[in-house]
Hints:
Layout: H1 9-16, H2 24-27, E1 37-47, E2 53-60, E3 71-72, E4 75-77, H3 85-97, E5 105-109, E6 113-115, E7 120-128, E8 143-150, H4 151-155, E9 160-165, E10 168-175, E11 178-180, H5 182-194, E12 206-208
Parallel strand pairs: 1-7, 9-12
Antiparallel strand pairs: 1-2, 1-4, 2-3, 2-8, 5-7, 6-7, 9-10, 10-11
Amino acid sequence: xxxxxxxxxxxxxxxxxxxxxxxxxFRDHPVPATGVRHSAVLxxxxxGPGGAVDVLLTERSHTLRSHPGQVSFPGGRxxxxxxxxxxxxxxxxxEEVGLDPTGVEVLAVWPSLHLAPSSSxxxxxxxxxxxxVPVGVVDRGEVARVARIPVADLLAGDRRFSAVFGPxxxxxxxxxxxxxxxxxxxxxxxxxxxxxxxxxxxxxxxRELPPRVMSPWMRDTDAFDPTDDDADxxxxxxxxxxx
Length: 243
């Protein structure tokens, strides 16, 4: 019998926290009672090579109209047949990267976050992958790359900076050739903070968005709120249909 790797203690503690609504990001993005589109993302951790914990990320196809080349969590819009955000997040992950939903331990469903520019309510689903199996791109028209990024790399101070675009300024990461910003970086930042893992990094270091993660219209305007980089258009939390 294959031995399944248990979730690390910091992740089980994180999943058990009942004070998420006190965190500034959740407190400042309450979901209105009406007029929102619901979606979910899967924040999936697992044991990587040598036992180091990693997290599953995708890079959107560079040919997409909206948010080409941007990094995201697997996920998408809740469909009528979905039995809530967990079902939606797992279904979308299966469609995007070939993930077997039965191999995921769902540890927590976090409060939904309201992304006002897109009238979206995005629910993070925290999961553990006790026995990872190979995953990869299912449809290159939607996903360019699937990556498992070590949490230790996300914690390294030299991989962190403040991403800036026009008036926007928020957390950023660059790991394994991926420039992570917007909603994805904000959620990763909150996860690391709430888990008590965050290490010192210089928030004064600023980096402009590289062209490879910009939509065409972004090159023509200074006014932009990118908190919806994982949740803005009609069909998924990245702004494009994912499945």
